Request: fold
Amino acid sequence: MGLKIWLQDRLVDEADAKVSVFDHGLLYGDGVFEGIRIYGGKIFECKAHLDRLYESAKVILLRVPLSPEQMAEALRQTVQANRIEDGYIRLVVTRGIGDLGIDPNNCRHGATVIIIASAIRLYSEEFYEKGMKVVSVSTIRNHPLSCPPQVKSMNYLNNIFAKIEANLAGAGEAIMYNHLGYVAEASGDNVFVVKDGVLVAPPVEAGSLNGITRQVVMRLARSEGITVIEKNLTRFDLYVADEMFLTGTAAEVIGVVEMDGRVIGDGKPGPLTRQLRKVFFAYARS
Ligand code: PXG
Reply:
């Protein structure tokens, strides 16, 4: 038996969960989405994810047909219908069905809403123990005057370009810079470094998605008594960091131990990285 998928205004069988070939999400990548974790049957940081979704939709002038309350209820029903204890939700809102022209005004039927709740493929414990290798890539993060990086849009080709560069280099993630040369983020994760005991993250304005995991990690770090600052970082700052880690819905908190051939710290996930991973793990599952 397949999954139950939320499509538009109700749950349908996976086999019936189909969208039109004229949907502008497919034709133009015109839409927004969220990736949300489910821990112990509960939706992680539901409000923060919905706030981000509705902000992304507002920026692209997309009217979401459900209110945030209705959307939260749809998420809960989809999780329950599939009896997911620990898993992942993909929430997608596209511009809907239009014609073969780019103009969103021709999508007269309104947005398409899709919610998929399913199992999540996790990294192995060994990967977290050993840490990840990353590389700087030549693909820059979206310019602030293009589709803003804070919009979690269905247009991920720029990030996919970066991911391909990382794959070709045999690295786990791509470090992306902005048009000014400052560190923005990884292709699907936010970046943090530790220098002299201080936790440092590039500001969102440097060109990153305002990651929910990032926000939670900063909050948890402060409550652990760790000083957290946001400032622009250069490639130099990453090379000479005492520790580096990435945060994201899928990876949670994962240490980086090598970047562009430079060993970070002592080549193992550092003490603050391990502490924050532990604290995040406990918080998410509490
Ligand atoms: N930056 C970008 C560009 C992202 O796409 C993050 C940062 C981290 O944000 P959150 O809110 O997740 O802490 C993301 C999120 C996947 C996958 O399957 C990727 C994301 C989320 C969920 C799944 O690779 N990226």
About this structure: The mean pLDDT is 97. Residues 35, 159, 185, 188-190, 208-209, 211-214, 247-250 surround PXG (CB under 6 Å). Residues 4-118 form a domain with the D-amino Acid Aminotransferase; Chain A, domain 1 fold (CATH 3.30.470.10).
